[in-house]
């Protein structure tokens, strides 16, 4: 059946169209999640429990860096905690939800593609032409955020929280769901935060944000960035600074993107005069 023109579609037609895009997205996530479910050994032994081992690459790099400046605070042979499951369905539930999370991460480009297929009919032909890189750029930023969360935020958080003690009488035995929840939230939060330039691009396109606005409220944005860094990282200054730096860079990139969008809009206006 031939697809209706965007101007001819009713509200119910739009809902039906959205429903099919959502179904396709869920199907892609389900397929990817099934693959992740079957790859249990790699997902858990290598990826999930990787940051809990002293041999993890981030710890090795931090150890070398600390030795270079005359310190050995990040050098250790093992992390002093154990991970255990305290409920009957704990391991199975962790397996299911971890597979779904991995499925979402893997299928993210296709999910973005379906989102693009839904909103692109409402754009002008010229806007669609200039926004073809949306899927690639947004996916690249998301994956960069996921990697940053996994290789930076996760090991910093696990190292801090796993070694923190209020007393030698208290031993750290973490529940499996708590440990995986920390990794999941760190990875997904970082992936979404790295989408800031894309968000600013669309907000500028619809006129809600301007470069002048972003520059004027940059000092407030700095405070928000520090708050976000404090939320997704352990409460030590070094970790917060490490996380804040790329977010601030993304904010500056967003200002540049906003300027480019405004400049292109002004050029179009001059052509139509």
From TrEMBL:
InterPro entries xref list: TatC
Pfam family, one: TatC
Topology in the lipid bilayer: Multi-pass membrane protein
Keywords, comma-separated and alphabetical: Cell membrane, Membrane, Protein transport, Translocation, Transmembrane, Transmembrane helix, Transport
Keyword Chloroplast: no
Predominant localisation class: membrane
Cellular compartment(s): Cell membrane; Membrane
Membrane-crossing segments per the record: 21-43, 94-113, 134-158, 215-232, 238-262
Top-level taxon of origin: Bacteria
Family: Belongs to the TatC family.
Function: Part of the twin-arginine translocation (Tat) system that transports large folded proteins containing a characteristic twin-arginine motif in their signal peptide across membranes.
Assembly and interaction partners: Forms a complex with TatA.
Annotated protein name in UniProt: Sec-independent protein translocase protein TatC
Natural source organism: Gaetbulibacter aquiaggeris
Gene: tatC
């Amino acid at each position: 059946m031939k697809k209706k023109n965007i101007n001819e579609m009713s509200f119910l037609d739009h809902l039906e169209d959205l429903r099919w895009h959502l179904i396709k997205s869920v199907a892609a996530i389900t397929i990817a999640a099934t693959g992740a479910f079957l790859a249990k050994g790699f997902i858990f032994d290598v990826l999930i429990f990787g940051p809990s081992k002293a041999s993890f690459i981030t710890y090795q790099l931090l150890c070398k860096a600390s030795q270079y400046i005359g310190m050995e605070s990040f050098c250790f042979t093992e992390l002093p905690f154990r991970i255990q499951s305290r409920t009957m369905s704990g391991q199975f539930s962790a397996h299911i939800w971890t597979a779904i999370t991995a499925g979402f991460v893997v299928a993210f480009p296709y999910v973005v593609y379906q989102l693009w297929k839904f909103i692109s009919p409402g754009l002008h032909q010229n806007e669609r032409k200039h926004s073809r890189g949306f899927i690639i750029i947004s996916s690249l930023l998301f994956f960069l955020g996921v990697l940053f969360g996994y290789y930076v935020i996760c090991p910093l958080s696990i190292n801090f929280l796993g070694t923190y003690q209020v007393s030698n009488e208290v031993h750290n035995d973490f529940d499996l769901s708590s440990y995986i929840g920390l990794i999941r939230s760190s990875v997904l939060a970082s992936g979404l935060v790295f989408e800031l330039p894309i968000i600013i691009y669309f907000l500028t396109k619809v006129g809600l944000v301007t470069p002048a606005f972003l520059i004027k409220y940059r000092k407030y944005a700095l405070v928000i960035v520090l708050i976000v860094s404090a939320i997704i990282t352990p409460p030590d200054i070094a970790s917060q600074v490490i996380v804040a730096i790329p977010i601030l860079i993304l904010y500056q990139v967003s200002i540049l993107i906003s300027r480019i969008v405004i400049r292109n809009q002004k050029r179009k206006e001059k052509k139509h005069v």
